[in-house]
């Protein structure tokens, strides 16, 4: 027997873990959908269960320790943010209207304020102020995908409130990412002891990168993809689109930003008019081609997010109380935004439509989990578990509340 056949395949363990993660994600997502909950809640719950099983039986695979799973999960979140960016364009952002702009602004400032106040009241005395700020930033996010699904099911996607919610969520994504960049810069500045100069540098790099991407990028991409349309090979659009997204994600990281900011900017820049020749030739839009990748890779990210939560920390009474109170504040902060829609709109519909955090809020938490302050993680296990619990509660409360207000009869 050849010696090579006696040596175990070094990929075998990673392949087994990936199979476990994908199958678990699908089962968890299916159970959540059957319970009329967003699939992401089931994927997070499955990740939490996998970690609990490893704690009970050490021989059970430790999914968090797999470099391969971590890599694919990281790719999943980058592809997800690229897909979110593809759902809107820069001209659409400029045409969302005053109502959407007001709702988006209040939908960021309100949750930031109540989250900051809640963290200051709920966290132990002496907690760093940047931690309070980061918790407030996590409550800024809005997951339009969850609300959009409810609006479609209720036949309200084309209503005035539906258009305001979608437009506000587009602007909300950009404002939320800028808040994340600013707060992450504050954490880095506080760790280095040079708060003012470091924060100014971070914000200047962030704004400079976004400005360059949205101006120079929009000028360059039509020429690049027009040239690519002359390629004679098959399946050109998806590799070029992903290559462009990864390139901007890398450039964003060089500018000191999270890679998701660059990926989101790439999606915004790639307008349908720039790639229509390739889409016509391949008989698919770029969004249609990216969608299967999102469905395959993003569940890994959410399962791993759930697996990184300490089950013993999440179910402590203090952590559960923190999660419930933070979720209540988060719902209130977003619900108030509905009243910024103006006359002729149902404030409750717009408010509930802005409530779900879903995957966007979890991306914020994943970013915070990588930040260090004074040599220690910014988010301690109890706090990280509490924030994820709060995001889960708002993710469930949003579609439930939106479905309820859409189902009510309007007064004559």
Structure explained in plain terms:
This protein has 412 residues and is an all-alpha fold. It has one domain (66-297, 319-407): Up-down Bundle (Na+/H+ antiporter like fold), CATH 1.20.1530.20. It has 19 helices and two strands. It has helices at residues 3-6, 12-34, 39-56, 67-86, 90-94, 97-122, 129-138, 144-153, 160-192, 195-228, 237-254, 259-269, 272-282, 286-307, 311-314, 317-335, 347-353, 358-369, 381-407, and strands at residues 372-373, 376-377. It has a two-stranded antiparallel ribbon. Strand 1 and strand 2 form a beta hairpin. It is globular and about 60 Å long. The model is unreliable at 1-7 (pLDDT under 50).
In short:
76% of the residues lie in helices and 1% in strands. The chain is mainly alpha-helical and 412 residues long.
């Amino acid at each position: 027997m050849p010696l090579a056949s006696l040596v175990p395949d070094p990929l075998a363990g990673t392949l087994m873990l990936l199979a476990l993660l994908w199958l678990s994600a699908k089962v968890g997502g299916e159970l959540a959908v059957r319970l009329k909950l967003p699939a992401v809640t089931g994927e997070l719950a499955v990740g939490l269960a996998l970690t609990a099983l490893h704690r009970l039986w050490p021989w059970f695979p430790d999914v968090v320790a797999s470099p391969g799973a971590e890599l694919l999960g990281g790719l999943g979140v980058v592809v997800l943010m690229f897909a979110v960016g593809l759902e809107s364009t820069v001209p659409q952002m400029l045409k969302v209207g005053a109502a959407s702009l007001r709702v988006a602004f209040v939908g960021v400032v309100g949750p930031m304020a109540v989250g900051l106040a809640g963290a200051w009241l709920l966290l132990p005395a002496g907690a760093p102020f940047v931690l309070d700020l980061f918790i407030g930033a996590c409550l800024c996010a809005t997951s339009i995908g969850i609300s959009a699904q409810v609006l479609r099911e209720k036949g309200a996607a084309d209503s005035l409130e539906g258009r305001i919610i979608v437009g506000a969520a587009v602007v909300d994504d950009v404002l939320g990412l800028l808040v994340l960049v600013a707060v992450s810069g504050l954490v880095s500045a506080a760790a280095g002891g040079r708060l003012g100069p470091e924060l100014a540098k971070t914000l200047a790099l962030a704004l400079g990168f976004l400005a360059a991407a949205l101006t120079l990028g929009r000028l360059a991409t039509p020429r690049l993809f027009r040239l690519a349309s002359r390629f004679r090979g098959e399946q050109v659009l998806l590799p070029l689109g992903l290559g462009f997204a990864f390139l901007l994600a890398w450039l964003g990281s060089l500018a000191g930003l999270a890679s998701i900011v660059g990926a989101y900017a790439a999606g915004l820049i790639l307008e349908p008019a720039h790639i229509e020749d390739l889409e016509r030739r391949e008989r698919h839009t770029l969004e249609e081609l990216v969608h299967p990748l999102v469905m395959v890779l993003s569940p890994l990210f959410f399962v791993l997010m759930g697996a990184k939560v300490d089950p013993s920390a999440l179910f402590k009474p203090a952590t559960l109380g923190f999660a419930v109170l933070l979720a209540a504040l988060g719902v209130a902060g977003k619900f108030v935004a509905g009243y910024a829609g103006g006359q002729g709109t149902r404030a409750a519909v717009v408010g509930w439509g802005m409530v779900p955090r879903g995957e966007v809020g979890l991306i914020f938490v994943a970013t915070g989990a990588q930040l260090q302050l004074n040599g220690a993680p910014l988010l301690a296990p109890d706090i990280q578990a509490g924030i994820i619990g709060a995001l889960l509660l708002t993710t469930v409360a949003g579609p439930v509340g939106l479905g309820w207000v859409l189902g009510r009869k309007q007064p004559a």
